[in-house]
Amino acid sequence: MFAVIRSGGKQYRVAQDDVISLAKLAGTFPTGPVAMRTGASDVNIAGFAFGPNKLTVGPGQSVTWTNADDSPHQIAFPKTQERSPVLLKGQSHTQTLATPGTYDYICGLHTSMKGTIEVK
Under 8 Å CB-to-CB from 26, ≥6 apart: which residues? Predict the structure, then answer.
């Protein structure tokens, strides 16, 4: 089963369990490749996956997610319901995690994408 949404002269097919997010997207969409970040607290988003999908950082350390996909993504923490802005290709989001513990996160637009950050 699916629905068809028409907007701006285009037609979109939406299947069951698809997520539709109505968000204002800021920035411009780059056409070239995005440089993958290699720092100890960097998470790249590529191929609809977080890499690495498990990361350990110290208390007060910042984690930066960078979207290298053509599709937009959003970092979401289900436990606290915090969400980053929607990230277009080439955009990044940085968040500081102050309290020790395990932080599970997902892509707010593609909920099958999952990752974990351990703060210790």
Answer: 85, 88
